[in-house]
Amino acid sequence: MTAAAQNQWMSERSAPLVPRGPLVWLRANLFSSPLNIALTVLSLAFLYLIVPPLLDWAVFDAAWRGSRIEDCPDREAACWVFVQARWPNLLYGSYPAPERWRIDLVFALGALGVALLMLPRVPRKGWIGAALLTAYPLLAFALLIGGVFGLRPVPTTEWGGLMLTVVAATWAIVTSIPLGLLLALGRRSPKRLTRWFCIGFIEFWRGVPLIAVLFLAVVMFPLFVPPGLEFDKLLRALVAFSLFNAAYMAEVFRGGLQSVPAGQYEAARAVGLGYFRMMAFVILPQAVRVSLPALVNTCIGIFKETTLILVIGLFDFLAAIQASMADPAWLAGEHVRTSGYVFAALGFWAFCYGMSRYSRYLERRI
């Protein structure tokens, strides 16, 4: 045995043993002090009061099978029959039934691309990410709107449900991130005109409510264009989402850029790097890493704020649930309404929690 190996063996033998086990964990985390003991008891009492009635309402006493309101006789329990019966409308909206395979294909391709990015040993992830940001949106738009490759055209007025929510959120996120990055760089530009323009753009859009922006884009914009010139309502709403959220993305990236020490800029200039190479290889990798938590938080907010498109006559996931509740066949009780809103909350939570978990994965990777 070598001297180094012997010293390591001796240090391991002399190291004190750390007690482990569930009782040790409980004592250290839940019963370490009188305050922790009181908080633990209060938490357990709260869970005892909340969890059993919630399980009775949502699982044990709920109606799971059927297709009519009569299959939900218990008005004090959840009516998941409503969700089951209205599922096609909640997922696809008014999209024609024979063409819904196109939506399934778009979702499947997107899920496959995200899964390949998350798997640790998949090669050429850079190419996969580039394809998701460039080729995939074009392919998805062609499949959804139709009119090419022999596909039947489907106007955006027939889009709705969860499909419309995902489309609007994805568009807003994918377009606002690069635009926000450009605005953040422009706000820190030494050129006065560029800096003033970016500051004015950011401050203007941050000071206007989103609902007012959507109202201007959908209702007021047609009044300022020549007669006969029309733009799709959904397209106008998507552009409004992009411009509005780009201002918030710009502030997220500006915080990340300000966190990079000035010595990094000086070191990059000292080795002869120009502005674009300095940003691409030295500054932005550090700034994006710092900005990632706030960036994902903004993306989660974007996904949830897509519900505002209801006020301009577009039926997203939440609006589809509300429209289904207005069906005379389901106007029989508050338990149907409660079940619909709980299902909507679970759907939004699933997407937002998925984005949060993926951001944590990225933080560990970088």
Compile the SSE list and pairings.
Layout: H1 3-14, H2 22-29, H3 34-60, H4 80-85, H5 87-92, H6 101-118, H7 125-133, H8 135-145, H9 161-187, H10 192-206, H11 210-220, H12 233-259, H13 262-270, H14 275-305, H15 317-325, H16 334-365
Helix and strand pattern? HHHHHHHHHHHHHHHH
Helical coverage, percent range: over 70%
Structural class: mainly alpha
Write down the overall geometry: globular
Q: What name is given to the CATH topology of one domain?
A: MetI-like fold
Model description:
There is one protein chain. The longest helix has 32 residues, at 334-365. This protein has helices at 3-14, 22-29, 34-60, 80-85, 87-92, 101-118, 125-133, 135-145, 161-187, 192-206, 210-220, 233-259, 262-270, 275-305, 317-325, 334-365. Among the domains are: 96-153; 159-319, MetI-like (MetI-like fold), CATH 1.10.3720.10. It is an all-alpha fold and 366 residues long. The two termini are 39 Å apart. 70% of the residues lie in helices and 0% in strands. The mean pLDDT is 85. It is built from 16 helices and no strands. The protein is globular and about 75 Å long.
